[in-house]
Amino acid sequence: MQAPQSLTVRSVSAFVIAVSPKTNWIVVELALADGPSGWGEATLAGAEEAVLAEIGHAQTLLAGVAFSGPAEVTGRLRMTHASQARMIVMRAVEQAVLDALARRAGVPLAAFLGGPERQAVPVYANINRGIVDRTPAGFAARAREVVTVEGYKAVKIAPFDGLDWKRCDHASGARLLADGIARIVAVREAVGPGVALLVDCHSRLSPVMARTALRALESVALFWFEEPLAEDAFDDHTGRALRSFANDRGIRIAGGEHLAGMTEARDFLARGTCDAILPDLRWTGLRSGLSILELAACSGVEVSLHNPVGPVLDRISVQMAAALPSFLILERQVRESPLFDEIRGGPQTLADGAIPLEAAPGFGAPPDRAVLERCAAQGFQRRASLAGVAGAGGDA
């Protein structure tokens, strides 16, 4: 019997790419001693130094060591009460190891994960971070561009800038809510009725605010209303009641982007507050993420992926979505920066609003190293907080 190939890590390194005042991408390269490099993404806004320190620590722990398999590699980084930085690096290393092994085997990552179940993955364009003009007209113009120029059939916005139900008085809360509703209506008018419109609330709303918005948007025909309520702020009954209120208007409630493991996912699904779940592979990892999403589908919840970051995790997420038995739609960060397409080697062509699955090994062509090195040499913007940065998500 032929002995299995070894899994010896030669090095773990990182590239930090300054994308915008809102974003730095952290791309991880894991090189095998006897094969190609694999790639992962460890983007964590506001914690870049901590992530880079953990990547340096991973290099110390993994370089030169022969492992029996991917689980042993990530297991060497596992620790009780791991920080967010340690967790996200552990997940990026898992991505990179599996990508490297798939490249060495000459098969797409989706096949390495047990798929593919489909040859194209439906996607939506998250255009929020790329919108500088935060007026309704600015939102509408960007949405119209990605639909007419790039062929997207679904668009997501986060329109409730500056709103936080816990900190706003009644008058300012009502004004900011109305501003967000105006942006949503403007986007619907710009893209027409045939484009799916998704709204991300970033847990900014109270139950009363959420119902007010849903009533005002009945004619807009939203595809989903994402994370209207903070998951830990209200009881299960309140969340289920809001879901029922939305469903009566033909709207899904989506959530679950912060889930990290099976126990959390089991409890989240048991609450019954969401129609669709979109965990983030930076927190779940690939193998655990597959289990979480299959559990959700078996529980009658539609499955998606939270994917608002860079081109590496984007391509990994496409492969993951293709490997799942059931999948609704995949998020893509669109038009925040031309670096997205430069790093991936060119723009992605859509076919009827979906990304065709690549047949190349791993997740496809590796990132353009010359672009990564050029960007890394330029340094990155250190930002401890996104407070006050409209369109960044955590701007309240």
TrEMBL record:
Origin superkingdom = Bacteria
Q: Which Pfam families match?
A: MR_MLE_C (PF13378), MR_MLE_N (PF02746)
Q: Name one GO molecular function term.
A: glucarate dehydratase activity
Documented EC number(s) = 4.2.1.40
Name the enzyme's class. Answer: lyase
Reaction equation(s) it catalyzes: D-glucarate = 5-dehydro-4-deoxy-D-glucarate + H2O
Every copy of the Mandelate racemase/muconate lactonizing enzyme C-terminal domain together lies at: 136-246
Q: In which pathway does it act?
A: Carbohydrate acid metabolism; D-glucarate degradation; 2,5-dioxopentanoate from D-glucarate: step 1/2
SMART domains xrefs:
MR_MLE
Q: Which InterPro entries match?
A: DgoD-like (IPR034593), Enolase-like_C_sf (IPR036849), Enolase-like_N (IPR029017), Enolase_C-like (IPR029065), Mandelate_racemase_C (IPR013342), Mandelate_racemase_N_dom (IPR013341)
Q: Which PANTHER family match?
A: D-GALACTONATE DEHYDRATASE-RELATED, GLUCARATE DEHYDRATASE
- Name the record gives this protein: glucarate dehydratase
Q: Could you tell me which species this protein originates from?
A: Chelatococcus asaccharovorans
